């Protein structure tokens, strides 16, 4: 079986052989971009080049970028572990042309790499182009031997890439692979018939997006032409590894299997492909997110990037209960992440001990309140059900947060298991009230409203605590 690391290398080699400069991945937690909590696409670090600022005159680049999609416009958290191809942390392979080659080379090389070099069966590859992008459609026809019946035209939702409300954008062409399970055309195929739930159906997996950067979206919504045309591509590394290794899930690749096997050994439980495998998949996914973001300088905390990490850790820790773990165990998985990723990303190997100790400390902290919090949540759920109410109030969600350290999304997740929802809006309102109270105490020179463990301190600005990273803050996407 071709190993993941050889696949990563062969992508980079393919493009360096075509005069692309290898540029190291930027950190997964950007330190210098206030619009972005986490790097969510390979192009993030090249944003200013697209807009015309290219001091090093870079004309072609290639890399594998560390990405996280847990916030802002791209938030895949709810999909993770339920389906087999969305992760919180993942690598995005990418090649770029900055005012150099354009659609023809981008498409031709993409086809050559996947069908010639990697040998994917041509009859299983589908391409999409933007509705009126006749150029791209023609190039697919003339420069590749793809069956024209497998080129589709799609609207802006899938095939017009936008950086955000403003910024570089343009039509794109996506490549999908038919993994052959069930009979669904796309993930959200209205005629979905494969029998897996729609979210989990992954017969046609999107593997690569080729973006043709040619406009800049202005504040008033109009498009202006960029001074040059660029190529920006993003390929899901774990997905292509899955396809090349011929397994039915990203989790069955050598990127995740060692983690799952270690969990099996520690828990004595056996991994399954279906729903029963969700705890294994979520923990394996979240471990990588934790190791990479802590390595890149994020610490669990009560706001911003640190709070996203805390939520992820607590979510994974609670899934650990389902595998029978009753004490900190996640830190024991750090060496497994290091052994599969440490060569490509040496920073992960260098900081492994530190990362393990941060994770262990945070696990231990949460472990103290998890059991009582779960009991309290169960009681609440019973009471709500008995009263015929379907939604746990914002005040109760807030109580679980303040007293037991349950992030609102964790409460929502557990509530769903009882057939209930959690009022996250109402919770955000409680947080705002608490913050206002806190401010008035401080205005009076009295800090006593703040608890020493920090859980009642509202350190988020502007009342955007729980919606902040789900709304406007991240704006970049591929
Ligand atoms: P999807 O439709 O599957 O959510 P996307 O269209 O949001 O993917 P892009 O923004 O086009 O993804 O990103 C480029 C590539 O990155 C995708 O073609 C896919 O292979 C990969 N990718 C996107 N999101 C994830 C994720 N959460 N986990 C793993 N790979 C991803
Ligand atoms: Mg997506
Ligand atoms: Mg898509
Ligand atoms: Mg896409």
TrEMBL record:
Details of cofactor binding: Binds 1 zinc ion per subunit.
Main subcellular localisation: cytoplasm
Residue ranges occupied by any Alanyl-transfer RNA synthetases family profile domain in the UniProt entry: 2-478
A single BP term in Gene Ontology: alanyl-tRNA aminoacylation
A single GO cellular-component term on record: cytosol
GO molecular function: alanine-tRNA ligase activity; aminoacyl-tRNA deacylase activity; ATP binding; tRNA binding; zinc ion binding
Keywords tagged on the record: Aminoacyl-tRNA synthetase, ATP-binding, Coiled coil, Cytoplasm, Ligase, Metal-binding, Nucleotide-binding, Protein biosynthesis, RNA-binding, tRNA-binding, Zinc
Catalytic activity field: tRNA(Ala) + L-alanine + ATP = L-alanyl-tRNA(Ala) + AMP + diphosphate
Cofactor(s) needed: Zn(2+)
EC numbers for this chain: 6.1.1.7
Location of the protein in the cell: Cytoplasm
Recorded domain comment: Consists of three domains; the N-terminal catalytic domain, the editing domain and the C-terminal C-Ala domain. The editing domain removes incorrectly charged amino acids, while the C-Ala domain, along with tRNA(Ala), serves as a bridge to cooperatively bring together the editing and aminoacylation centers thus stimulating deacylation of misacylated tRNAs.
Family the entry assigns: Belongs to the class-II aminoacyl-tRNA synthetase family.
Function: Catalyzes the attachment of alanine to tRNA(Ala) in a two-step reaction: alanine is first activated by ATP to form Ala-AMP and then transferred to the acceptor end of tRNA(Ala). Also edits incorrectly charged Ser-tRNA(Ala) and Gly-tRNA(Ala) via its editing domain.
Full protein name: Alanine--tRNA ligase
Gene behind this protein: alaS
Boundaries of the shown chain within the full protein: 1 to 478 of 889
């Amino acid at each position: 079986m071709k190993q993941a690391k050889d696949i990563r290398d062969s992508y980079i080699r393919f493009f360096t052989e075509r005069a692309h400069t290898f540029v190291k991945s930027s950190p997964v937690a950007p330190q210098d971009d206030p619009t972005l909590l986490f790097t969510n696409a390979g192009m993030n670090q090249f944003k200013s080049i697209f807009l015309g600022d290219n001091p090093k005159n870079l004309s072609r680049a290639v890399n594998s970028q560390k990405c996280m999609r847990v916030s802002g416009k791209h938030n895949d958290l709810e999909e993770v572990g339920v389906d087999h191809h969305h992760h919180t942390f993942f690598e995005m392979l990418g090649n770029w042309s900055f005012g150099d080659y354009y659609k023809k080379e981008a498409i031709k090389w993409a086809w050559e790499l996947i069908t010639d070099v990697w040998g994917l069966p041509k009859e299983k590859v589908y391409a999409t182009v933007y509705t009126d992008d006749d150029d791209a459609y023609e190039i697919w026809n003339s420069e590749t031997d793809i069956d024209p019946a497998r080129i589709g035209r799609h609207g802006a939702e899938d095939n017009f890439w936008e950086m955000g409300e403003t910024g570089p954008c343009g039509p794109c062409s996506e490549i999908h692979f038919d993994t052959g399970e069930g009979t669904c055309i796309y993930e959200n195929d209205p005629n979905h018939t494969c029998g897996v739930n729609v979210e989990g159906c992954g017969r046609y997996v999107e593997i690569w997006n080729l973006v043709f950067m040619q406009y800049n979206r202005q504040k008033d919504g109009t498009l202006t032409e960029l001074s040059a045309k660029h190529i920006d591509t993003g390929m899901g590394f774990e997905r292509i590894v899955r396809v090349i290794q011929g397994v039915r899930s990203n989790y069955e690749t050598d990127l995740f299997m060692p983690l799952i096997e270690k969990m099996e050994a520690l828990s004595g439980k056996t991994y399954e492909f279906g729903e029963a495998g969700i705890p294994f998949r979520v923990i394996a996914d979240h471990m990588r997110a934790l190791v990479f973001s802590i390595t890149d300088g994020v610490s669990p905390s009560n706001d911003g990037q640190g709070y996203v990490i805390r939520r992820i850790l607590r979510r994974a820790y609670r899934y650990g209960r389902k595998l029978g773990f009753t004490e900190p165990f996640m830190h024991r998985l750090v060496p497994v992440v290091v052994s599969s990723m440490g060569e490509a990303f040496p920073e992960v190997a260098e900081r492994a001990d530190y990362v393990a100790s941060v994770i262990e400390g945070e696990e231990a902290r949460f472990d103290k309140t998890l059991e009582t919090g779960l009991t309290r949540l169960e009681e609440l759920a019973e009471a709500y059900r008995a009263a015929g109410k379907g939604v746990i109030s914002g005040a109760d969600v807030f109580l679980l947060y303040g007293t037991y350290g349950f992030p609102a999304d964790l409460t929502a997740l557990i509530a769903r298991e009882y057939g209930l929802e959690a009022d996250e809006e109402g919770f955000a309102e409680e947080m705002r009230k608490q913050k206002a109270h806190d401010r008035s105490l401080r205005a009076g020179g009295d800090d006593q409203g703040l608890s020493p463990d920090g859980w009642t301190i509202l350190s988020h600005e502007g009342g955007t605590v729980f919606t902040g990273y789900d709304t406007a803050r991240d704006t970049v996407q591929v």
